[in-house]
Specification:
The complex is a heterodimer. Helix content of chain A is about 85%, strand content about 0%. Chain A has 3 helices and no strands. In chain B, helix 3 crosses helix 10. Chain B contains 12 helices and 2 strands, in the order ααααααααβααααβ. In chain B, strands 1-2 form a two-stranded antiparallel sheet. The chains are: A mainly alpha, B mainly alpha. The interface between A and B is small, with 8 and 7 residues.
Chain lengths: ~100, ~325
Amino acid sequence: MSLVLDIFTVLAVSTGAFFFLAGTVGLLRFPDALARLHALTKADNLGLGLVVLGLLPRADGALGALKLIVVWLLVLLAGATVSQLLARVARRAGPSA
Amino acid sequence: MTVAWAFDAILAATVLAVACWTMAIRDTFAAVVGFVAYGLLLALVWVRLTAPDVALTEAAIGGGLTGVLLLGAAARLRPAQAAAAAETPGLALRLVTGVGCALISAALAAAVLLLPDPAPSLAPAAVADLPAIGVGNPITGVLMAYRALDTLLETVVLLLGLIGVWSLTPDSFWGGVPGPQHPARTDDALVFLARLLPPVGIVIGVYLLWVGKDEPGGAFQGGALLAAMWLLAMMAGLAKAPPTSRRWLRLVLVAGPLVFLAIGLAGLALAGAFLAYPEAYAKPLIMIIEVAKMLSVAATLGLLVAGSPERTPSR
């Protein structure tokens, strides 16, 4: 059982790390602000989500697991809001920004 | 073990690289962004040094509120930036600055490297007397009991900072509303966040204060979080900044130092020394001071970021 959980953790955290890597590459390589924001949200939402999912079996108790999930939800909320605000400024500034 | 070592090495290299980049970049806004990233990385360094209390403060103050303060300053300096960038200091000044900084760095490095091994420590003595104070977190014990005078002066210094900001007020706006007017927006992501987040943030802030007696946390970290929630509501236009002449506002600002000082003076009569606590009441007294301090810290930090009064109170 613990071996299954270990494999699950390694798989989920690795996939999460891959999304962070892909998001970072996108942030550096994509041509305009909106596309870069799109890349960033993949790292925030999926990357962190998968890392949290992978760490859930290792959390100490239900309270620890709950804290991890709350951290993910708060990052989702903050990330989505900041993306909206940045995208609004980028659109107002025009396509050259 | 080696994985942890590799992580530490990469972390240290990244912190140094971000610090150098922040210094070298010419654009003020980019430098502030670099500084915020530097603060967050530094918080990670403190976690690796098993100092979570310092990490929390660094993340909240160094990465968070100082970042907002500097962003405001950068926005104000923008008109003058081109002129400032055109001025290059002379070779002699640059040489003296460089040599001075190098000397300070060398002295700090020498002080750290020349420490005797094991380093002299009062930690065992501090931990040994913790049960008498009734708090489980040694950091809180040191801040509130052994070094209470430092903590008291710290709360006063914060207040002095705010007085400094307020003293820049033009005469006509004295006692007025700090900061620019944020228009009330209705359909905005920021408004949505400002409605959703403060209940969560306030609970976590109070939680940080409450666990601070036994776990990492405390009045400063909790207060910084409360200030952030207040600022969020103000920036979204949901809460109006109060005129700085309000009596209740000034009472909240001085509550922390005042309660601290009153309990400290009472210690003179009840426990035989300034800032000493009668042993039976040490823990409740410390918690009372912490609550008052958190309110003052939250109000002071919020108003520091809001800035000096720029408007007369609107009716």
